[in-house]
Amino acid sequence: MASLESSNVSPPNPSSFVLRGPTTTQNKFLRSTSTKEASFSEFPYTPPRRSSPSSLSQSLHVSPVSSPLHPLSPLPSSKQINQINQNQNQQQQSPGDPPHSGAAYRCISSVLKKDGQILSIAASNGLVYTGSDINVIRVWKIPEFSECGQLKTKACMVVALEVSHDRVYAAYGDAKIRVWQRTWDDGLKHVRLATIPRTGNYVRSYISGKDKMMKHMGPITSLAINVSDDILYSASLDKSVKVWRISDLKCIETIQAHPEPINAIIVADDGVLFTASDDATVKVWRRNFCRGDQPHSLTVTLPAKYSPVKALTLTPDGGILYGGCTDGYIHYWLKGWYSGQLQYGGSLQGHTHAVMCLASVANYVVSGSADSTSRVWAREPDGQHTCLAVLVGHRGPVRCVTAFAGRFGEEGDHPDGCTVCTGSLDGVLKVWRVTCVNNINRCSTPSGCEYFEL
Asked: What pTM was computed for the model?
């Protein structure tokens, strides 16, 4: 099986996530064998933080990768929940504060396949694509969430997925990207188009010495597509970002973006590229067509206070950038309506372990964490954020997430809310329905600048 460890790359620092494929039947995700229930009181609400850049070398595994076991005792009754919510409201709200909004949620589907860890997920046109340890990408149809196809290759471990203009882009553990064309003639079909980089072009370029760095020298961690410029970006643990021209699938630029491995990238509608790294920063890049061979230039560096950034997402309008970090915090930056410059807006606190994935839809932000939970956050009109729901059910770290506005195929009219798909390293794919309910405060968090000073 292909491994995300590359002989050409020095071992990533311990704070990086290293995705390992099962080499034997025993090397799978290990569940706890303890019969004693762990206490949540042992995990402080505020995760431990790094105090200096030198502590970047500290390992993430000083705290458990997975969360403490969730209680298997019967859930509290609705009367008990209402009483808890009332007590929370009395403790956290002053008389002049408006009532917090909340959410009711339920798991509407849970699927376990013998695919190993679920590593990537993408959605487009009523279809959801999931990638895992094996060489199969599964295609699911919404709203019934039934499997309707598979994309197979010889390579294993699908670490990143993107879908755009009926094309599916999948990054594998061998540091290559496979491309499929989706057609609807006589039913849903996927036709394999190419592999990036093309083997012939790579060999010729290597021999001629024109571009020995065409192929990533380390595992790919993230993909992003600039629709307007017809460009595909790929980020890697080799600390670089490759720029691929979609028309001919050629590498047209290599950005040496960070001094540490890059974990996530995302592109705004205006073409601005954001890169997140283990160096505890998010960098902003703009493309200038007059710069020749290196058109991408660094605009600004956003610090995340010594915590490696593992995930990125943008609001649909591109006005807010969110970054999930290994300390469990989600930092966000606001785009000025006049200047267009990003300014630090605050942090969302709640996860006890690293934030591994983020998604944004409408005024909701969904986060998945190594604490085995997902959280749904609502962005209020005043700019504050409220945690509407904590989605509990996975028994392993939540590695990937996607979200849709509204509901699919369910009775009733509930314009508020969203549908969330979560993939975990426990191999389970879950679909959740989150519906907003007024005057319920399940958990709220301040989002001011008291977290740190700029």
From this structure: 0.73
